[in-house]
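Review box. Two proteins, two foldings.
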Amino acid sequence: MQMGGAATRQLLDKAYFLDLLGDSHSGLGRHDAAITAYRQAAEGFREQEAQCSYALCLFKIADSYLLLRQPHNAVRYLEQCLPLLHDLGLTRHEALARKHLASCQIVPVQSH
């Protein structure tokens, strides 16, 4: 449910702030803190139907998990953001997300 006017703007401002906070944490190598901020931002963007910002936050969460060498956690976010990136025409990010997703596909090692 969307609210009008100032309330909507305030919620979007908070989401944008959290997105920037995530960027700052990521730039400092604090990827766990970045993920927390990006998740909160993504929720705000989703609630306000800001699809582009929502898709990019999902991508940033996945990227942060990859930087933490946790591809198993990145997969879910990559799978969520790919159709959104495609629908929005964000071809560069879509190509990066596909590349990241392909790198996450781990073939189990079989023991003999």
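Next protein.
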Amino acid sequence: MKVKEAKEMSPEELKKSLDDSKDELFRLKFQLATGQLDNPMRIREVKKDIARVKTVIRQRELGIYQA
């Protein structure tokens, strides 16, 4: 996900995206622990997606960026 995509989302879509990303990160970490993970770089990508979404949510709370 790109920052531009996140900024274009509604608050409900951001919340859903955040929840989905957190769920995916949990599944990826579980696969890593059991030795079933094929692409360990995906964990890093998902963490960055979570950070991007949280940043956009916080910017909206502070009124820095208005959608």
